[in-house]
Amino acid sequence: MLQQFEQQQHQTKLQHFASEVMETLDIDDEAEIASSISRAILACASLNISIKNNFKKVFRFDGNNLITDYKISSLATYLIIINCNPTHVHVAKAQLYFAMRG
Questions:
Q1: Residue 19 CB: number of other CB atoms within 10 A?
Q2: What is the DSSP string of the chain?
Q3: Kindly report the CA angle at 11 between 90 and 96, in degrees rounded to 5?
Q4: Which of 50, 45, 58, 46 has its CA nearest to residue 17?
Q5: In the chain, what is the straight-line distance between the N-terminal and C-terminal CA atoms, in Å?
Q6: Is the dihedral of CA 53, 89, 98, 44 positive or negative?
Q7: Residues 6 or more apart whose Cβ sits within 8 Å of residue 12
Q8: Alpha-carbon distance 49 to 21, whole Å?
């Protein structure tokens, strides 16, 4: 499993927005979102996986409001999802999907 993380480290295109991932999971609680992202960043740090290659803080306009978001890699997306609260149905389904992929 660690080898998969190391391989994905070399494939770190920042292709997703964290806010869009969380919206897909039907999560809108800012504290919960921040907590999941923080735990995903800690996981990268613990594994010596580059944070800057997987998470980039960005600012976007949402209508008339400036919001803080993250541009994230596929690895970061995975780590955020597995660090979300599984009491949300969409999160539990996504976690099961990743578990079944092995």
A1: 19
A2: -HHHHHHHHTS----EEHHHHHHHTT---HHHHHHHHHHHHHHHHHTT--STTTEEEEEEEETTEEEEEEEE-HHHHHHHHHTS-TTSHHHHHHHHHHHHH-
A3: 20
A4: 58
A5: 9
A6: positive
A7: 50, 53, 54, 73, 75
A8: 21
Nearest-Å Rg of the Cα atoms of the chain is 13
Residue type, 13: K
pLDDT of residue 84 exceeding 90: yes
- How far is C-alpha 36 from the geometric centre of its chain's CA atoms? 7
* Residue 16 CB burial class (10 angstroms; 0-12, 13-18, ≥19): middle
CA–CA separation, 59 vs 57, rounded Å?
A: 7
29-73 pLDDT, tens per residue?
989 999 999 999 999 999 999 999 999 999 998 888 998 999 999
